[in-house]
Amino acid sequence: MPSLAARPIPGHVRRMPFSALYSPDPRFEALGSEFADQVIPATFPNLRARFWNDRAAATIGLDTLTEIERSDHFAAFAPLPANQCHALATRYHGHQFRVYNPDLGDGRGFLHAQVREAGTQRLLDLGTKGTGRTPWSRGGDGRLTLKGAVREILATAMLEAVGVSTSRSFAMYETGESLQRNDEPSPTRGAVLTRLSHSHIRFGSFQRYAALGRPDLSSRLVDFVIDLYYPQLNDAKNRPAALLDAVIGKTAELTAQWMLAGFVHGVLNTDNMNINGESFDYGPYRFLTKNDPNFIAAYFDENGIYRFGRQPEASFWNLNRLADALGLISEPEPLAEALTTFSDRYRSALVKNMVKRLGLIPRTEDSDQKLAQTAFRALAAGGDRLRWEPFFFDWFGGLTSESRAMNGRRSHLYSDAAFGDFKSILKKYQAARSISLSTDYFQRPEPEELLHHEIEIIWAKIAEDDDWSSLTAKLGALDGARSAWAFS
After folding, report:
1. Annotated catalytic, 271?
2. I need a surface site. Which of 64, 94, 246, 397 has the fewest CB within 10 A?
3. pLDDT (tens digit per residue) in 137-164
4. Would you call 48 helix, strand, or coil by DSSP?
5. How many of the other CB atoms lie within 10 Å of CB of 138?
6. pLDDT per residue over 58-102, tens digit each?
7. Is cis: bond before 187, omega within 30 of 0?
8. Using CA atoms, how far apart are residues 243 and 229, in angstroms rounded to an integer?
9. What are phi and psi of 23, to 5 degrees?
10. CA separation, residue 315 to residues 240, 323, 342, 382, 418 (Å)
11. Is-contact 392 374, C-beta < 8 A?
12. Can you tell me the distance from the alpha carbon of 58 to that of 373, in angstroms, rounded to the nearest whole number?
C-alpha cells in the first residue's frame, strides 16, 4: 500500500461527510482527572496503512472515511468530531501472576474516543496500543511491534468467528520504526493498533482506588459503570455487590467461551479482565491443537498458573480480588455470597456454550449436561489424534453431520467405542441451523484454525518479503468461517 503521511488536524476542524450512524458519546472524561491522564500521541516517521476493519467501521458510522481521514484519526489520532478532545491514558493497578503491582496503567495506549454502536446502542471504546509513552510506561518505549499487532488482529478474528466475546481489531498502521525487544529478533518493525471494545474498565481499575483508600472514587466508578453498562442495577440496595454479581455472570460466560474455543489466553492478570466480560489485550495466546488441560501459552508462566485447564480457577481468583476491592465500599457478606455463585454459573455457561458450539437446539438441563460431559470425554478420548477445532466442525449440527463426519478425514476416530456415547446422545438433538451445513464452508474437509505454526508462517512472509497476501487471505477465510458458524 502507498505510504500515508499522518497530518494532525486542528480539533475544531470537522471533515465531512461522516456517516449518519456515527454517534459520538464521550463519557469517560467526565469521571475526572483521578481516573486518567491526558497524553500526547506519538508521531511516527513513515506510516503505512496495513489493516482496516470495514465491517466494524460500518457499525459505528466510520465506514465512509477516506484513506487520509483514516490516517488523521487512527495514525495521527486527531480527535474525532464531537468526541474526546484529549487522549486519555487510564489508571489502574493489578495482580500480575498473583503479585500485586501498583505501578500499572495505560503504558502504551490510551482511550481515543467513545461511540454508540448502531442498532444495539452499546457504548463502545476506541482504544489504542503502541501510541507512545505515558506516565504509566514504567521505562518502556510505549510502542507495539508489528508482529504483536498482526497476532492480535488474527486472535480477534478467530475468536469472533467461533463466538467468543472479544474486542475487535479496528485499524493498524506500520510506523516505520525499528524496535528493540528481548522476546523476538530485533530490531523489529513497529506498529500502532486501534481496537474497538465494550469498555476498557478493568478489575484493576477498582483495585487502584481500594489500594489508595479512596471510597469516594470507588463509589464514583461503581456508579459510572452501572449507569453506562448495567442500568438495570440502578435501584439495587447494595450497588457494589449487585455490580460484582453481574460481573461474575459475564466472566463465567466469557471463561466458558474460552474453554469451548480451545483458547489459552496466557496472561489472565486482573488488569487484563474487564467489567463487561469481554476478552481483550492479546499477548502470548494459543489455540489448542488437542485437548490438553496442561497447555501453557506464555513461556514465562513458569508455574502454569494460567494453563488451559486452570482458566476457570484464574477467573474466579480474579473475581475474588475484585470483591476485595469493592469491600472498601460494601459489607463483606453480600460480596462473599455473590462469589459462591461463580462455579454453578460457569458450569451452566459451559453446558450452554457446548450445545451452541455443536449447533444444536437446547433440550433439558439434564440432557444438555450429559451432552457436554460426553462431548468432553470424546475430545479426551481422541487424544493426540483429534484436533480441537475439527471436532466441532465435523459434528456441527449433530447427527445432521454424521455422514459428513463418518466419511471425513477423522472417520477412523469416530468409529472408536469411545465415541459411542457421544453419538448416542446426539440422537436426542435437532440442529439449530441445519441450513448452515449447505454452505461451502461445511463442504470442506477441514475448518479454519489458528495454530501457532500458521501464525509464524504468515509473519515470516511479512518479515522477510513484506508479503501481506497470506494475512489477507487468512482474514478472509476467518470471516467466511464467522459467517458459516453464525454465532453472532
Report:
1. yes
2. 64
3. 998 999 999 999 999 999 999 999 999 9
4. strand
5. 14
6. 999 999 999 999 999 999 999 999 999 999 999 999 999 999 999
7. yes
8. 10
9. -130, 85
10. 19, 12, 9, 27, 31
11. no
12. 40
Which residues have a Cβ under 8 Å from the Cβ of 372 and sit 6 or more positions away?
350, 351, 354, 355
3-state secondary structure at position 294: coil
| Of residues 177, 178, 189, 186, the one with CA closest to residue 46 | 177
Read off the C-alpha cell for 325: 476491592
pTM higher than 0.85 for the full model?
yes
Name the 3-class secondary structure at 111.
strand
Distances (CA, A) of 172 to 165, 278, 434: 21, 21, 37
Catalytic-labelled residue, pool 271, 281, 301, 394: 271
Residue 8 vs residues 68, 100, 170, 251: alpha-carbon distances, Å: 11, 39, 20, 39
The rounded distance, in Å, linking the Cα atoms of 488 and 478 is 14
pLDDT category at 186 given cuts 50, 70, 90 is confident
| Mean pLDDT calculated for residue range 462-488 | 96
Convert the pLDDT of each residue in 228-275 to its tens digit. Answer: 999 999 999 999 999 999 999 999 999 999 999 999 999 999 999 999
Residue for cell digits 462473599? 336
Distance CA 454, CA 474 (A): 10
Name 431's bridge partners.
360
d(CA 177, CA 143): 9
Contact by Cβ (8 Å): 239, 233: yes
- Grid look-up 457494589 returns 240
> Is-contact 271 204, C-beta < 8 A?
yes
In the chain, the amino acid numbered 478 is L
Where residue 278 falls among pLDDT bands split at 50, 70, 90? very high
User: What is the distance of C-alpha 274 from the center of its chain?
Assistant: 10
Residues in the chain: 488
Cα–Cα separations (whole angstroms), residue 351 to 131, 423, 432 = 41, 17, 16
pLDDT tens, position by position, 293-334 = 999 999 999 999 999 999 999 999 999 999 999 999 999 999
